[in-house]
């Protein structure tokens, strides 16, 4: 299972009736995206705003019933592009101001512009998430994979595994909690 990337291979239908799915996506990805944004943007507040804007854009796609083929990649690219836009807006100030924070933003802009460096970071993040998923208890992992990889709704998972929808919800909540624990060395969770 470690060789499969559970978040990338399956299209995710982001639909208007999936508020709960959106919340799970938000809970699962917010801190990861914030950590990425924070690595490039020196202001914690600006990084948080950038990630919030990414989720607003995702929500708008949800309202328009768009399908996203690679949710993880899509969110990482949106975050990266939002950081680039932010840094571009600050680029004009860099010519005037020479403080250390502004110089760091310029360096980060160039680092973000490097596709291969961004790809390496994204690949490493995917590997760490896959390892964390492999460490989940068997039933918990099975429910989580059916939800995330196969895109099944809670009722479908419950029927397929002959368990209640409440048990499905509990397994998904447990999976998210355990993933946060397993990934705490790689990501910052608030």
Describe this structure in words.
This protein is mostly helical. It has a domain of 125 residues. Helices cover 72% and strands 2% of the residues. It has a two-stranded antiparallel ribbon with strand order 1-2. The longest helix is centred in the middle third of the chain and has 24 residues. 25% of the residues are buried. The N terminus is likely disordered.
The helical percent reads: over 70%
- Content of β-strand: under 5%
SSE pattern, N- to C-terminal:
EHHEHHHHHH
Mean pLDDT: 78
Poorly predicted tracts of residues: 1-16
Determine the number of helices (DSSP H or I, runs of at least 4 residues).
8
Please state the overall shape, judged from the principal axes of the Cα atoms. elongated
According to DSSP, the number of beta strands is 2
Radius of gyration: 18 Å
Characterize the largest beta sheet: strand count, sense, and whether it forms a barrel: 2 strands, antiparallel
Keywords:
190 residues, mainly alpha, RNA_pol_sigma_r2, 2 strands, disordered N terminus, sigma factor, RNA_pol_sigma70_r2, single chain, two-stranded antiparallel ribbon
Secondary structure topology:
Blueprint: E1 12-13, H1 19-40, H2 44-63, E2 67-68, H3 71-94, H4 100-113, H5 115-134, H6 138-148, H7 154-161, H8 165-182
Antiparallel strand pairs: 1-2
Helix pairs in contact: 1-2, 1-3, 2-3, 3-4, 6-8, 7-8
């Amino acid at each position: 299972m470690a060789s499969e990337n559970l978040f990338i291979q399956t299209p995710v239908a982001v639909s208007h009736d999936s508020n709960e799915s959106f919340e799970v996506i938000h809970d699962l990805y917010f801190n990861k995206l914030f950590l990425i944004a924070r690595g490039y943007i020196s202001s914690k507040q600006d990084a948080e705003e950038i990630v919030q804007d990414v989720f607003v854009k995702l929500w708008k796609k949800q309202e328009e019933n768009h399908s996203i083929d690679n949710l993880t990649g899509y969110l990482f690219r949106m975050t990266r592009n939002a950081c680039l836009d932010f840094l571009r807006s600050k680029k004009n100030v860099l010519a005037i101001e020479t403080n250390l924070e502004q110089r760091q933003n310029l360096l980060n802009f160039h680092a973000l512009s490097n596709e291969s460096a961004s790809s390496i970071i994204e690949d490493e993040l995917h590997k760490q998430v896959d390892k964390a998923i492999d460490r989940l208890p068997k039933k918990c992992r099975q429910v989580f994979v059916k939800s995330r990889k196969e895109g099944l709704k809670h009722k479908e998972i419950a029927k397929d595994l002959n368990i209640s929808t409440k048990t499905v919800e509990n397994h998904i909540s447990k999976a998210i909690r355990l993933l946060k624990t397993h990934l705490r060395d790689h990501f910052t969770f608030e």
